Amino acid sequence: MARVAIVTGGTRGIGEAISLALKDAGMTVAANYAGNDERARAFTERTGIRAYKWDVADYDACQAGCAQVAAELGPIDVLVNNAGITRDGTILKMSYDMWKEVIDTNLGGCFNMAKAVFPGMREKKWGRIVNIGSINGQAGQYGQVNYAAAKSGIHGFTKALAQEGARAGVTVNAIAPGYIDTDMVAAVPGEVLEKIVAKIPVGRLGKAEEIARGVAFLCSEEGGFVTGSTLSINGGQHMY
Ligand SMILES: NC(=O)c1ccc[n+]([C@@H]2O[C@H](COP(=O)([O-])OP(=O)(O)OC[C@H]3O[C@@H](n4cnc5c(N)ncnc54)[C@H](OP(=O)(O)O)[C@@H]3O)[C@@H](O)[C@H]2O)c1
């Protein structure tokens, strides 16, 4: 039977490419999203992948959403925690709400979703969890204490959960994308973006499909010996 995968924020941007890559790999995919119904509807029409609306920052909504996906598509084998937001500003201008929203969505969402699917994966003795971090969680970024902290937290979360899953056949890995050509990056002012691209050794923004290829590998049968790792896909912008 086909593996069942949930991709949070799976209806546009990097998530859309991940949903498609996992479908191409033969999985039955559920793409979660937060509120952009129009983009979700267009995504489902175009790809045939079902979209499910809930807020990953809401613990109870994650439990209910995963239960619905499992009832409709089957027990969940693969989780990609991709949903993420930015609320940028220097700490002088960052409100508590801007801090909390980013932490609750980007990092809290990983916990909320893993809580829903990890027990079932352990029981089946097979599972794949991939968390989408960021170059800015590795290197920090001016005006992003909330985002950098959340993404940095994802890398620690990944390594800790990987240790809990290893004996039970559940791998947990992270991908740290550099700057990828999506709506999120389109929101960065043009002159700032030009300076960012100038610092990328490969000389261009990345493509969502380039992240999706990495995710598909980590979620494959062949990826079973890779766990607790972070794969940086950033055009050489940050190496360590
Ligand atoms: N783009 C980059 O350069 C870059 C670089 C490094 C890391 N990343 C990370 O990669 C991931 C995807 O980024 P992207 O650029 O593809 O973002 P994007 O184009 O803004 O898409 C974000 C997706 O996440 C969903 N989402 C947002 N908040 C959510 C919530 N609370 N609950 C459920 N879904 C939610 C959105 O749903 P709606 O459509 O309903 O709004 C959308 O599907 C994020 O975690 C981001 O931090 C991106």
From TrEMBL:
Please give the Gene3D superfamilies that the UniProt record associates with this protein: NAD(P)-binding Rossmann-like Domain (3.40.50.720)
Q: Which UniProt keywords apply?
A: Oxidoreductase
If you read the UniProt record, what top EC class would you report for this enzyme, in one word? Answer: oxidoreductase
The domain of life is Bacteria
- One Pfam short name: adh_short_C2
Q: What is its EC number?
A: 1.1.1.36
InterPro entries in the cross-refs: Acetoacetyl-CoA_reductase, KR_dom, NAD(P)-bd_dom_sf, Sc_DH/Rdtase_CS, SDR, SDR_fam
> What's an example of a GO molecular-function annotation for this chain?
acetoacetyl-CoA reductase activity
Record has Hydrolase as a keyword: no
GO BP annotations listed: monocarboxylic acid metabolic process; poly-hydroxybutyrate biosynthetic process
Tell me the PROSITE patterns matching this sequence.
Answer: ADH_SHORT
Question: Which positions fall inside the Ketoreductase domain?
Answer: 3-178
What does UniProt give as GO cellular component? cytoplasm
Return the similarity comment: Belongs to the short-chain dehydrogenases/reductases (SDR) family.
What PANTHER family does this protein map onto?
Answer: 3-OXOACYL-(ACYL-CARRIER-PROTEIN) REDUCTASE (PTHR42879), 3-OXOACYL-[ACYL-CARRIER-PROTEIN] REDUCTASE FABG (PTHR42879:SF2)
Q: What is this protein called?
A: Acetoacetyl-CoA reductase
Q: From which source organism is this entry?
A: Sphingomonas jinjuensis
